[in-house]
Design a protein that fits this description.
This protein is α/β, with parallel strands linked by helices. It has two domains: 208 residues, Rossmann fold; 37 residues, no CATH class. The chain is built from eight helices and nine strands.
């Protein structure tokens, strides 16, 4: 069903975003990846997606804080790949600090990259989807779109904003054969998370297992990390025929964190 569809995925040169790109390419989607990183590693990823799945894959280096670059990314996908059928907003950054010490520049960057960039991509992509008579928009939110944690004012505000943006746009395009949903993961087992565990253990004077179970997974009822592959599989489902009447939803995949 997704074979031949065209997907644009922001923040997709590593981690969850790369997982989305790999999963959609495996379904036969042509993909445009985006994000920062080593140029050679990005090119290796681009080539592997093409060679492993027989699809077209382009890379666009749009800075998610710059609306004009975001517009060029969507326009390039339309021109070079032939349209935009699927948009996955995944670009994001994090910074942790009590609000009285929270740098204004960090607040501005997190809101720009985690929230405003999704507004811009959607605004550019929706007219293309309407012309094609079909579209799927999936926003990567977070458990923090539903609940808060201390010292994360910008991140939590941005993710709550993504929830509201998702619901609003879903209502606006509901009769255009376009669905808009958000995925709300808890802690996902990524290389970045894995690398942080030894330092956290050393800083707190606890074992790495205690970091996993008592810090990162403290709110997860299952005491299990979500995997990149599980998040990507949920996105693929939301893009498929079985989910055509699911729109405006916030899909939790957090081990029971927000059920409590």
């Amino acid at each position: 069903m997704l074979k031949g569809k065209i997907a644009v995925i922001t923040g997709s040169t590593s981690g969850i975003g790369e997982g989305y790109a790999r999963a959609l390419a495996a379904e036969g989607c042509h993909v445009m990846i985006n994000g920062f990183g080593d140029k050679d590693e990005i090119e290796t990823l681009r080539q592997s997606l093409e060679s492993e799945h027989g699809v077209k894959c382009l890379y666009h280096a749009a800075d998610m804080t710059k609306p004009e670059e975001i517009g060029d990314m969507i326009a390039t996908a339309d021109k070079e790949l032939g349209g935009v059928d699927i948009l996955i907003n995944n670009a994001g950054i994090q910074f942790v600090s009590p609000i009285e010490d929270f740098p204004v520049a960090k607040w501005d960057a997190i809101i720009a990259i985690n929230l405003s960039s999704a507004f811009h991509t959607i605004q550019y992509a929706v007219p293309i989807m309407k012309k094609r008579g079909w579209g799927r928009i999936v926003n990567t939110a977070s458990a923090h779109a539903l609940v808060a944690s201390p010292d994360k004012c910008a991140y939590v505000a941005a993710k709550h904003g993504i929830a509201g943006l998702t619901k609003t746009v879903a209502l606006e395009v509901a009769q255009d054969n376009i669905t808009v949903n958000a995925i709300c993961p808890g802690y996902v087992w990524t290389p970045l998370v894995e690398k942080q565990i030894p330092d956290t253990a050393k800083a707190r004077g606890i074992t790495e297992e205690q970091v996993k179970n008592d810090v990162l997974l403290a709110s997860a009822a299952t005491k299990k990390f979500t995997t990149i592959e599980q998040v990507a599989a949920l996105a693929v489902f939301l893009c498929g025929d079985a989910a055509e009447n699911i729109t405006g939803s916030l899909q939790s995949i957090d081990g029971g964190w927000t059920a409590q």
